Amino acid sequence: MLTSMIGAVESGLLYALMALGVYITFRILDFPDLTVDGSFTTGAAIGTVMTIGGTPPWLAVICAFGGGAIAGMFTGLLHTKGKINGLLSGIIMMIALYSINLRIMGKPVQSLRGHSNLFDAIDVLLLGFILAAVVKIGLDLFFKTNIGLGLRATGDNGRMIRSFGGNTDLTIITGVALSNGLVACSGALVAHSQNGANNSMGIGMIVIGLASVIIGEAIFGAKTIFRATLAVVLGAIIYRVIYALALRVPWLDAQDMKAITAVIIIGALVVPTLRRAWKQKSVSRKRTEELLGEGGRP
């Protein structure tokens, strides 16, 4: 039990980078980017193939970030310059990346067994914690810069920013590129932790990323950027812990995990709404009691 929980925390920290990438597009930019399912595999493919080719693992992960950023940049260009709907832009790029990833790997599955690995010299838990902390703090600082503030403002009210002469196209491209760079970096880390990559490992990543964001925000709140990014990292860990616990239920199989993820997301969305409704009802009831205590005077 303890071993599986430690493994869940390790996975959560590696997937936290992907969740932070999803947070940038869905929460900061309000951009429904489905490129994630493809760019995650792109990162895994680049990280695996370059390592097999003799590239130092840490450099392969950095190159994976670059590959994901390029994919995100093209998604942003399709939307801003090609005037294609944001959702459709992500779908188009995700489909294109399926073939591109196969080209990168040369075959559907690539194994890292027998080759140098990023986690050969350092524990997964330790490196995952360091990377998640560095990226979280880095994003906190980035969102305080002019570019970061521009991203936040574009997501809040892009029309107003354009009226002030701001280049929202460049801002969107930058944000989507950064998002998919982090997603690809997470894919490379997961590939190293699993000793290999396959062309279908990115399927459903957008759902996992959204689940991490929603769970984190529902439990820890997101009133400030610092709190929001922390909530996303913790949400990714909590999601993996729930996933690990669900796998231990005798009557549940791995094939049921997508349905369980859907239930988790529904719960994370519904519970806060019910909590707010209950709170408002309590306040109204208390106010009514106070009025009645005053003899019904308003």
- The SSE order reads HHHHEHHHEHHH
Strand content: under 5%
Query: Level of helix content?
Result: over 70%
* Backbone structural class: mainly alpha
Summarize this structure as a short list of keywords or feature phrases.
mainly alpha, 10 helices, 298 residues, globular, 2% strand, 2 strands, two-stranded antiparallel sheet
Structural commentary:
The chain has 298 residues and is mostly helical. It has helices at residues 2-28, 36-52, 57-80, 86-105, 124-142, 146-163, 168-193, 205-220, 225-247, 257-293, and strands spanning 109-111, 196-198. It has a two-stranded antiparallel ribbon. It contains 10 helices and 2 strands. The model has no long low-confidence stretch (mean pLDDT 89). The relative contact order is 0.18. The longest helix has 37 residues, at 257-293. The chain has a domain at 2-200. The termini are far apart.
Brief synopsis:
The protein is mostly helical. Helices cover 76% and strands 2% of the residues.
SSE inventory with pairings:
Blueprint: H1 2-28, H2 36-52, H3 57-80, H4 86-105, E1 109-111, H5 124-142, H6 146-163, H7 168-193, E2 196-198, H8 205-220, H9 225-247, H10 257-293
Helix pairs in contact: 1-5, 1-7, 1-8, 1-9, 2-3, 2-4, 2-7, 3-4, 3-7, 5-9, 6-7, 8-9, 8-10, 9-10
